[in-house]
Design goal:
Layout: H1 2-26, H2 38-46, E1 52-58, E2 61-74, E3 93-105, E4 112-121, E5 127-136, E6 139-146, E7 151-157, E8 162-168, H3 169-172, H4 175-182, H5 184-199, E9 214-225, E10 228-239, E11 243-249, E12 255-260, E13 264-268
Antiparallel strand pairs: 1-2, 1-13, 2-3, 3-4, 4-5, 5-6, 6-7, 7-8, 9-10, 10-11, 11-12, 12-13
Length: about 270
């Protein structure tokens, strides 16, 4: 009798604990596929406690690796903190910083492309500063733009020559300026590319380039992690009503999986251990 009673108590305890774990994970939450506020998901991403290490695949072949890191910036001239204030606390935040660095092998090239992207956002998530650097020996490229002074600086550095030019946002909207700078078909190609990125038609004002025509939505979803399914957020971006991209984010804001056009995949390296 005693062994049966003991077995019953153990079974009851096991069932109770599993129910509590299930309830903490799924209970009281919105069902899979239901919509989620974009504000909620982006706040998770921008304040994620850990970096996201991602492997890059193209058509199923691994071509590189990158690391996504977010941080919260604090005011530069803040008052001295209390000596008893816990370390790591950031008071009076004034910005978000997003960093992406990595490398990849491009088709037909023996050298690796190394890149470093930094984006600074205000607290209301308006962009303030943007920098992208890339190099493939022996050449390097850099673009730096700031919203405050409405300017973008381009730099191309190679073994033979170095080219550097600063444009106002108004210049980037004006095809005559680009034609004068680059000349002929090259300028038309660059102008067409910038048009695709929302810089629009000729404009003589100093307004910032308009936002990309991207439509975002967010939903609850699940992903298989080992032998289990975990709840995640799924972000979908639609560009020009033609191209789609998907970003799967953990409940704490870590980037788990990114699907881009042309079968370009970014996979969190945690998946390689399962």
């Amino acid at each position: 009798m005693l062994p049966r009673l003991l077995f019953f108590l153990i079974a009851l305890f096991w069932l109770t604990m599993n129910f509590l774990l299930w309830r903490s994970e799924f209970g009281g939450q919105k069902p899979i596929g239901s919509s989620v506020s974009l504000e909620t998901v982006w706040n998770k991403v921008l304040t994620a406690p850990d970096a996201s290490s991602l492997e890059i695949y193209h058509h199923g072949k691994k071509i590189g690796f990158c690391r996504w890191v977010t941080s919260v910036g604090a005011l530069a001239n803040k008052k001295p903190s209390d000596e008893f204030e816990p370390e790591g606390m950031v008071d009076e935040p004034n910005s978000y910083n997003l960093d992406l660095e990595g490398n990849a092998t491009l088709n037909g090239s023996t050298n690796r492309l190394r890149f470093d992207v930094n984006l600074k956002l205000s607290l209301d998530r308006a962009w303030e500063e943007f920098t992208i650097r890339a190099n493939m020996r022996p050449d390097s490229w850099e673009l730096h733009a700031t919203a405050a002074d409405q300017k973008a600086r381009f730099l191309i550095d190679g073994p033979v020559e170095r080219w550097e030019q600063t444009f106002t946002f108004a210049d980037l909207r004006n095809p005559q300026v680009l034609l004068r700078e680059f000349g002929g078909p090259l300028a038309l190609g660059i102008l067409g590319t910038m048009g695709n990125f929302g810089l629009g038609a000729p404009d003589t004002t100093n307004s910032a380039p308009s936002a990309l025509p991207i439509k975002w939505d967010a939903n609850n979803d699940t992903m298989r992690f080992g032998h289990s399914k975990v709840r995640v957020y799924r972000l979908r971006a639609k560009l020009f009503d033609r191209y789609e991209a998907f970003i799967f984010v953990s409940r704490v804001g870590e980037i788990l999986w990114v699907e881009l056009p042309d079968k370009l995949i970014l996979s969190n390296d945690a998946f390689t251990h399962f």
